[in-house]
Amino acid sequence: MNLEFRNIHKAFGARQVFTGLSASVPLAETTYVVGLSGGGKSVLCKLAVGLASLDQGELFLDGHPIHALPRRELVRLRRQFPYVVQGPALLDWLTLAENVALADPRATPDQVQQALARVGLAEQSTQLPPQVSPGVAKRAALARAILLKPRYLLLDEPTTGLDRQAASEVNTVFGQLRRDGLGSLVVSHDYAALRQLADRVLVVAGGKAVFHGTPEAFYASELPEVRALTAPGEE
After folding, report:
1. For tag attachment on the chain, is the N or C end more exposed, with fewer CB atoms within 10 Å?
2. DSSP 52-107
3. pLDDT in tens, 48-106
4. What is the pTM of this model?
């Protein structure tokens, strides 16, 4: 099954974000969405799970018409396809385990602990967010999504703001999830991770999808919109 964007149009006031974007993203794979800042990459994630509405076009997620679903069904769908926002969005007064448990009140303590263990945080479950590093907070946010046993993840800049070591730890977790068969759509400027983890690359520029292919084809492309991203210093 795929995430299908069909002739997507979206504007915020006078600012046109998408002007006919079309792409078919396989849910079984890891797709990195790249482009210049302000090009609408994060908006694409919000549209994919109905957190923003289309002005025109159609959007299907695993066969579900996102553009036509009522709110109740969208809420149910987001449990299968959680969107992990750029900031960790943890509550400072709750432990990491308690923050993870918020995703599913029916989850047992063992299930919460298992989710934390999958991101390497089994020993830090009782710590509060202000006591941990930004990288640990990001991994706790991933654990919260994992607790839902998702079919697919949408990740917005998972390593932004992290030092090299913390980014490497997040990407190690992400790589293991990928090996476990969990597909994802990743908005990122982390080109080193893209080389290692992406099955496909989707380039958004000028309101459209201008490239969609393998990392090898991405780096070999002569398209000006792609060369602007793969110039020396970006690779």
Report:
1. C
2. S--SEEEEEETTEEGGG--HHHHHHHHHHS-EE-SS----TTS-HHHHHHTT-TT-
3. 999 999 999 999 988 889 988 898 899 888 999 999 988 778 899 999 999 999 999 89
4. 0.92
